[in-house]
Amino acid sequence: MKPKLKTRTEGVLTILNILSWIAFLGFMIEAGGVLVSYGISYVHPEAARKMYMGLNLYSVSQFSFWHYTLSVSILVAIAIMKAFVFFLAIKILSKVNLMNPFTIDVVRIMERMVHVLLGTWFMAMASNAHTAWLLKETGELHGDWVATEFIFMAGLMFIISQVFKRGVEIQSENDLTV
Amino acid sequence: MAIIVNLDVMMAKRKMSLNELSEKVDLTLANLSILKTGKAKAIRFSTLESICKALDCQPGDLLAFSKD
């Protein structure tokens, strides 16, 4: 059997795969942590003071339970969407074959990633609007999202997916050249 | 497709099988099949040259144009 030639690109892709797994697990843990804290805060309202990594939603929970639930829902949704983006990145990295890198499967996953990133951008905008409203009502700031980074990433990913699409056409032409 | 590949016709005229042609022109059976079935998007001059040599014919015998 021919030994597999390890290239630099393969090494970089392996590192990216590991980093994507770490990010995916991190965001899943974040979503889980917020959900568990939310569950505990039903019984012990004080738990809302330490939701996740110093996030304090105690004053919101005291102001209105529904707004507290909405804040938690948005936080969890954004964390899950971010985790899903990295899950898709893991899928791309596992499907990429350096001999024939341009496949329609990878393009489809990239387009899905664009949709998820647009959804994350929308959620971040909704979260910002809700936070701004809560700031007016309670006088306290409970986290602010930089929503533009998601739309920027979605735009960038869309461009890459279109380039990949052209790559698929060129590769298929090359494969059908005798 | 407007360009028609008449490889099968020439092979029948020369009474040559796909395996035999594959050995003579040093092309895989899969690639020859792509060419024979008209799925190919392009053909290299070197491939055309070796097929013409093996079948003792002209490129015009292998390729034809049809208005469709």
Give me the secondary-structure topology.
The complex is a heterodimer of chains A (178) and B (68).
Chain A (H helix, E strand, L loop, with lengths): L7 H36 L14 H6 L1 H31 L8 H35 L9 H28 L3
Helix pairs in contact in A: 1-3, 3-4, 4-5
Chain B lengths: L2 E3 L1 H7 L4 H8 L3 H8 L8 H11 L3 H4 E3 L3
What does this 3D model show about the protein?
The complex is a heterodimer of chains A (178) and B (68). Chain A is mainly α. Chain A is built from 5 helices and no strands. Chain B is mostly helical and 68 residues long. Chain B is built from 5 helices and 2 strands. Chain B has helices spanning 7-13, 18-25, 29-36, 45-55, 59-62; strands at 3-5, 63-65. The A-B interface holds A 172-173, 176-178 and B 27, 31-32, 34-35, 39-44, 47.
Number of strands of chain B: 2
Q: Percentage of helical residues of chain A?
A: over 70%
The helix-and-strand class of chain B reads: mainly alpha
Question: Can you count the helices of chain B?
Answer: 5
Biggest protein-protein contact in the assembly: A-B, 5 and 12 residues
Side-by-side strand order of the widest sheet of chain B: 1-2
Number of helices of chain A: 5
- Assembly state here? heterodimer
Mean pLDDT of chain A: 88
What's the story with the biggest beta sheet of chain A? none
- Rough outline of chain B: globular
| N to C succession of SSEs of chain B | EHHHHHE
- Our Rg estimate of chain A from Cα atoms comes to 21 Å
Q: Percent of residues of chain A in beta strands?
A: under 5%
Major beta sheet summary of chain B: 2 strands, antiparallel
